[in-house]
Amino acid sequence: MGEVRKSRSSGCFSDFLPGDASPDSACDGSDLDSEPDSDVDMLCCHRVQDSLLSSASRFTDYRGILNWIIILLVLTHAHLFLENFIQHGFLIDLWKVLVHLIQDDWPSVYLVMAANVFAVAALLLEKCQDKGQIPAGVGHCLHLLNLVVLMLFPSAVILQQDTCLSTGGALFSLCIYTVLGLKLYSYQEANRWYRQEHCRAPGITCCISQESGERTDHLTLGDLYYFLLAPTLCYQRGFPQTPRIRLNFLLHRLLEMVVLTQLMVGIVQQWISPLFQRTNSTFTNMDVTTRIEHLVELVAPNHFLWLILFFLFCHSCLNFSGELLRFGDRHFYGDWWNADTLKSFWRKLSVLFHKWSDRHLYTPMYVIAVPLRTCRLWIFLIMILELLVAVFLGRYFTGNYGNGLVWLCVLMGPPMAVMTYFHDHYITYRAQPHWTLY
């Protein structure tokens, strides 16, 4: 026994660096909770190892800290909710929202229905080109003309002075037209590649049918509208499909959509609306101190609103649509919360747009300003500033520091810029009849 103690103790203080510690002994921290079970542990209880919170320890199990942060956030914002309720009372009124939609948004319904004209026109152009009735160059120009009119038509209707479109209806209509424009561009591009029997854009894999007899089978209204309703922006012949529709999965997503929509309305009515009503001037006319104070007050509700909107659209709505259509590719988003650069964040936040931009070209710049009928240069500069941050600071902030920078930009970047658009629009037009912030 003495020999064993001597041999073990002599090797206890062997010369090695902290980085050389094995993962089993230095990473999981399990040895910290172990009890001494032999005389060897009593004689030799120390070895070279790093503290768990140091980066060299390679320790990653922070679940307890995450739970602590979640509980702290819930308690903190529960206090804010209670304070808001004591000061303003209960302001949530879902019926008010429904009445507003029924009364004011029928013009937006007509505007969305008119979008079918552009979709059918794209199908007819593809059929004419496939039959050789229109040259390829002429057909491509007509497609681009159809897309230009599609993008300008809703803006022209919304920006009319006598239009009765509500802000929500205008925003919804313009989003529908934007998505339709992206889909129809991919539709005509992919079909042009199929006709040429090869892909001219690098890095794109096409599913090309080799049988000439099946060449025009996909040019049907059913195939077109399946693509328009499917949760994707990129067209191809034949999409992967699941074997059946899971009813339980469908009902869960539907319940999420109902609950999250009500939660968003509640945040706007109970939290954001009172903050808007406290001021009588736009952000442009505020002094610097008041502007910063107002922005800080809006950070939390605005961030919660965008997180809920992300889950509602990217998870609940897209999965509901995919399940209903048995659409197999459900890779709608990545782990953007772990992104350590802004470029990685935007790529993972919306895989659909990333796929489309890789395959084609996409630059979304006018979706918010047009329905609100306003434009603020300094707000636009915030979005440009985030691009500069992604290019320059992304080289120096990596890992955990880069992830912290990403979350800072999520809190104070484009989401806050969008909120300031709505704030200034509310201050400018709230005196007009039939205007409401719910």
From TrEMBL:
Transmembrane residue ranges: 65-86, 106-125, 137-159, 165-185, 254-272, 304-322, 377-398, 404-422
Q: Does the keyword Aminoacyl-tRNA synthetase apply?
A: no
Cellular compartments per GO CC: endoplasmic reticulum membrane
* Gene Ontology BP annotations: triglyceride biosynthetic process
Q: How does it sit in the membrane?
A: Multi-pass membrane protein
Disordered: region residues: 1-34
Main location, first listed in the record: endoplasmic reticulum
A Pfam family cross-referenced in the UniProt record is MBOAT
Q: Which UniProt keywords apply?
A: Acyltransferase, Endoplasmic reticulum, Membrane, Transferase, Transmembrane, Transmembrane helix
InterPro entries, per database record: MBOAT_fam, Oat_ACAT_DAG_ARE
- Pathway(s) per entry: Lipid metabolism
State the compartments where it is located: Endoplasmic reticulum membrane
Q: Name one GO molecular function term.
A: diacylglycerol O-acyltransferase activity
Keyword S-adenosyl-L-methionine present in the record's keywords: the answer is no
* Similarity comment: Belongs to the membrane-bound acyltransferase family. Sterol o-acyltransferase subfamily.
Protein name (record) = O-acyltransferase
Q: Which organism is it from?
A: Anguilla anguilla (European freshwater eel)
Taxonomic lineage of this organism? Eukaryota, Metazoa, Chordata, Craniata, Vertebrata
